[in-house]
């Protein structure tokens, strides 16, 4: 169940047999995050996403991590996507597009976004290792795909190169935050929505 808050903000409570999540997002924030999940590496990535996107994000999540991280990571992606979509409302005045490169030491990631109402993920990344601590790198794809699907955005993520898996994934989440910040920002020149169809 979701509920719109004042301004471009939304919150959601999602409880299943696998996860229990409370998430709130303020699009026009100041980079403040309160992240508490059972997946420490995801906590770190969401903190980076929030700081570099200048959002305010609060996440409280518990899940069946005794099995693995899959359900928790997936469901947080779902909740974040749903909140973003609701917070943006009719999308009037937004820039819509963004393309951001972020270096992290030896790694370089690129994120291109179209807030299009057409969910799609293109994900090009090859990591040197399958794990970062206890976190499986395949969970990055799972998170991004469910986020793009529920936010109904077109999302292209390319990790051009890197040697350290942590650095490469960190660059992705920083770039995602910065690209979303740009694409969701209001351009005073835009009248209505930036689409010849008249709707996004």
The main sheet comes to: 5 strands, mixed
Count of separate DSSP helical elements: 4
Note poorly predicted spans: 1-5
Helix and strand sequence: EEEEHEHEEEEEHEH
Q: What percent of residues are in strands?
A: 25-35%
Distance between the termini: 23 Å
Q: Compute the number of strand runs.
A: 11
Shape from CA axes? Answer: globular
Helix proportion: 25-40%
Rg is: 16 Å
Counting helices, strands and paired strands, the structural category is alpha+beta
The largest beta-sheet arranges its strands as 1-2-3-5-4
Mean pLDDT: 95
State the gist of this model.
The chain is of the alpha+beta class and 200 residues long. 34% of the residues lie in helices and 32% in strands.
Outline the structure in words.
This protein is α+β, with helices and mostly antiparallel strands. The chain has helices at residues 40-53, 70-88, 138-151, 165-184; strands at residues 2-5, 9-15, 19-26, 32-36, 56-63, 97-104, 107-114, 120-124, 131-132, 135-136, 154-161. The longest helix is centred in the last third of the chain and has 20 residues, at 165-184. Residues 1-5 have low confidence and may be disordered.
């Amino acid at each position: 169940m979701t509920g719109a808050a004042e301004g471009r903000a939304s919150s959601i409570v999602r409880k299943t047999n696998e996860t229990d999540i409370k998430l709130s997002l303020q699009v026009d924030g100041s980079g403040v995050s309160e992240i508490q999940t059972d997946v420490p590496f995801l906590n770190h990535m969401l903190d980076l996403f929030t700081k570099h996107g200048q959002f305010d994000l609060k996440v409280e999540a518990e899940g069946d991590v005794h099995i693995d991280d899959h359900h928790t990571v997936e469901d947080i992606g779902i909740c974040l996507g749903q909140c973003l979509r609701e917070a943006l409302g009719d999308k009037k005045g937004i820039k819509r597009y963004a393309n951001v490169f972020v270096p992290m030491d030896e790694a370089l990631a690129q994120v291109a976004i179209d807030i299009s109402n057409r969910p799609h993920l293109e994900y090009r990344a090859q990591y040197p290792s399958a794990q970062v601590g206890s976190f499986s790198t395949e969970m990055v794809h799972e998170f991004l795909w469910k986020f793009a699907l529920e936010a109904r955005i077109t999302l292209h993520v390319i990790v051009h190169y890197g040697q350290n898996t942590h650095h490469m994934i960190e660059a992705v989440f920083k770039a995602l935050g910065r690209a979303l910040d740009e694409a969701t920002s209001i351009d005073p020149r835009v009248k209505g929505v930036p689409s010849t169809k008249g709707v996004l």
